[in-house]
Design brief:
globular; binds 2-acetamido-2-deoxy-beta-D-glucopyranose; signal; oxidoreductase activity, acting on CH-OH group of donors; about 625 residues; GMC_OxRdtase_N; binds flavin-adenine dinucleotide
Length: about 625
């Protein structure tokens, strides 16, 4: 049985809404082109996937008017104005997503049919996501460089975070009432493409929950974007003035859509990358998205570089289809092996998520439930939104939370947990398809996580709060690793996604510890004002073993942060791209999206993707400038 607490649903709400809407933004179609134009032009660059990273890179590469760029995107431009409202953050539209579920999850008691979240729309995840734009902790990125990726520390990445994002200061009244703090040095200047801001309303219980966190021993931080651990406020990807989604389409595509050197082909899927006999990438094959495989396949050519930005799900799939991947898998699918690269589709990570639910018997009014239970409050909120774009309807998924370090979650036994991690025989816990390079790379990742788990500057569990009694508990640094592999009977069908959630027994144990922490939080003097009573998982579950068993039954494998499936790491450690994001074993082919992350950061992934893509664009420009 899948028990879903409200906050979890809030993060991962799946509503099948079909809205009728006018083509208000249809001028956006101006620079979209027909397939015959794409196939008859030789471009400087081809970008495979016009999602979040793809649009960033397309924008930057076309700053030079002498360079031409083709972006091929499976999805369409979404012209529904409501998709830019804060409410879209919690209402994921099925027509903007791929349709697939994961393989049965042995670590989740064999549950199957669990939704895999991947965007299928121009702007990708940034067009449909929860607009929560937090960053990982410095330690998250510093440890990328320790995995053998020079140039990828927090200090080196900070300029790219800043190149993408600026902060619009919150209303003085709300920031004072809620003690919202920030540090402007974390953000870029006012003209960066993405604006982040705070909504004009917070529920009063948020103050109580914040105070309760402090009483439970969590340290507030002045600016999460610089110190993403313990307790901090974070803005949403929302413009302050218009209160609209700030995303790759509004920030990176729309302002440059009339550049003559930028072509966007929507509704087409890329099948394979083409190579010459020197294994240099020279072009792509593509066809209309819903046509049968092989029907009307066309090609487009690129002189300088082809950049894969098809997301964690399809970047590895396209590589595998093109003969770059684990040789055994390719042979099974009858694909000639161009490069035996075991890391393609391996190293899959996401934030698995458990939950708790408490009923507040003396809740403060209004609270988030008032929107459904109190007609007067709802009418006031709707009116305020309709006339002024302020009030409760300007909230996305919330703006404050705790990133709880393991020493706080497991005061008595965090050292023994760390010792257990270090003593595990990793070969027994990794997918059987991993070769010795992947095992060697994983051991280094494992040691980094183990050592970071001893520190207070590294969030083990994310616990956001927004005035509700329910909490989601996301596992920020999973030890389990999954796979994405071609469907060998139909390589054009969706690939097989195996998250391998909780296969490493430490993963559910860390969430179990956080359930106990939630109980401690609810019992603080501040929280006692609300008279919380545990509803789920249930006060009868007390031991770690009981809680772990319940989590295997109820937790979800994903918070839509799938990543790391074409990781940047040395090839001997199972990497797919080097520190310049070039695919091993070929030339003229790079990757610039979420799949290049080697170790998932303890944050939602959107802001990190902006930083990676900005960095990727600069690397690509540099290496192809001279010719
Ligand atoms: C429902 C949802 C909610 C999320 N919520 C948050 C959040 O609140 N905060 C946060 O920080 N992160 C969130 N994320 C995660 C974040 O948005 C993603 O990690 C990020 O957008 C990924 O960017 P990307 O460029 O790597 O991939 P994407 O943005 O997914 O882009 C990949 C693009 O490639 C296209 N494509 C794929 N295959 C092909 C092909 N064969 N041919 C042509 N095109 C192809 C896809 O259609 C897609 O547009 C969420 C993600 C989802 C899906
Ligand atoms: C997923 O299914 C919906 C219908 O439920 C459809 O509208 C959408 O196009 C499908 N997604 C893709 C990428 O095919
Ligand atoms: C991870 O990065 C932090 C720096 O932010 C460092 O202190 C720590 O030692 C790193 N971990 C390992 C195992 O090197
Ligand atoms: C306000 O935030 C700061 C820094 O985040 C913290 O030190 C302080 O304790 C907070 N004050 C209150 C009243 O919560
Ligand atoms: C309903 O909301 C109104 C307006 O916010 C408030 O005054 C009233 O007390 C609420 N009623 C209940 C029963 O919560
Ligand atoms: C309308 O919005 C403005 C700022 O956007 C705010 O100052 C004002 O208080 C709002 N009006 C109401 C009635 O809330
Ligand atoms: C680890 O597990 C593998 C696979 O089961 C086994 O072959 C190997 O001997 C084990 N190594 C150790 C040190 O126990
Ligand atoms: C592989 O694709 C075929 C054809 O679309 C489909 O019938 C089959 O179920 C898929 N296999 C898996 C394991 O999903």
């Amino acid at each position: 049985m899948l028990r879903l607490a409200a906050t979890f649903v809030q993060l991962l709400a799946l509503t099948r809404v079909c809205l009728a809407y006018t083509d208000a933004l249809s001028e956006l179609h101006a620079r979209t082109i027909s397939p015959s134009v794409a196939s008859s032009t030789t471009y400087d660059y081809i970008i495979v996937g016009g999602g979040q990273a793809g649009l960033v890179i397309a924008n930057r590469l076309t700053e030079d008017a002498s360079k031409t760029v083709l972006v091929v995107e499976h999805g369409y431009l979404d012209t529904n104005p409501a998709q830019e409202d804060p409410s879209s953050a919690t209402a994921y539209k099925q027509h903007l997503l791929y349709n697939l579920t994961s393989t049965p999850q042995t670590g989740l008691n064999g549950r199957s049919g669990l939704t895999v979240f991947a965007a299928a729309v121009v702007g990708g995840g940034s067009t449909i996501n929860g607009m929560m734009l937090d960053r990982g902790a410095p330690e998250d990125y510093d440890n990328w460089s320790k995995l053998g990726n020079p140039g990828w520390s927090f200090k080196k990445l900070l300029p790219y975070f800043k190149k993408a994002t600026h902060l619009a200061l919150p209303d003085p009244a709300i920031l004072k009432e809620f003690n919202i703090t920030w540090d402007l040095s974390a953000y870029g200047s006012k003209d960066t493409p993405i604006e982040v801001s705070y909504p004009s309303y917070q529920y009063p219980a948020v103050k109580v929950q914040y105070q309760g966190m402090i009483e439970a021993g969590v340290q507030p931080q002045k600016e999460g974007a610089l110190n993403a651990y313990a307790l901090f406020w974070f803005p949403g990807a929302l413009t302050k003035k218009e209160v609209k989604r700030s995303y790759a389409v509004s920030g990176y595509y729309r302002p440059v859509a009339d550049r003559k050197n930028l072509h966007l082909l929507t509704g087409y899927r890329v099948n394979e990358i083409l190579f010459n006999r020197f294994k240099r990438a020279t072009g792509i094959t593509f066809q209309a998205r819903d046509t049968p495989a092989g029907e009307n396949v066309q090609t487009a050519k690129a002189k300088r570089e082809i950049v894969l930005t098809s997301g964690f799900l399809h970047t590895p799939q396209i590589l595998q289809r093109s003969g770059i991947g684990p040789a055994a898998l390719l042979r099974e699918a009858n694909i000639p092996v161009l490069v035996d690269l075991p890391g393609v589709g391996a190293n899959l990570q996401d934030h698995a998520v458990g939950s708790t639910n408490f009923q507040f018997n003396t809740d403060i009014i209004p609270n988030p439930g008032s929107l459904t239970s109190n007609e007067t409050f709802k009418a006031w909120a709707d009116e305020l939104w309709a006339t002024n774009r302020t009030g409760p309807r300007s909230i996305t998924v919330g703006n404050v939370g705790s990133w709880l370090p393991l020493p706080l979650l497991a005061q008595d036994d965090y050292k023994s947990i760390v010792a257990t991690i270090k003593s595990q025989n990793v070969s027994e816990l990794l997918p059987s398809t991993y070769d010795k390079t992947l095992i060697a790379g994983y051991k280094i990742q494992r040691n980094l996580i183990a050592s970071s788990y001893s520190r207070n500057t590294f969030g083990a569990i994310e616990l956001p709060f927004s005035g509700r009694g329910s909490s989601s508990l996301s596992l920020e640094h999973p030890l389990s690793r999954g796979t994405i592999r071609l469907n060998t009977t139909d390589i054009y069908a969706e690939p097989l996604v195996d998250y391998n959630t909780f296969v490493n027994p430490i993963d559910p144990l860390v969430i179990a510890k956080s359930v106990k922490f939630v109980r401690k939080w609810q019992s603080t003097p501040a929280m006692q004002q609300l008279s919380p009573v545990e509803v789920a998982p249930g006060a009868d579950l007390q031991t770690d073993e009981q809680l772990v068993a319940s989590l295997r039954d109820s937790a979800g494998p994903t918070t839509a942060h799938g990543c790391c499936t074409a990781a940047m790491s040395p090839r001997l450690h199972g990497g797919v791209v080097d520190e310049k994001l070039r695919v091993y074993g070929v030339s003229g082919l790079s990757i610039g999206d979420v799949s290049t992350i080697p170790l998932i950061p303890g944050s939602h992934t959107c802001s990190t993707v902006y930083a990676i893509a900005e960095h990727a664009a600069e690397l690509i420009k540099k290496r192809t400038a001279g010719w």
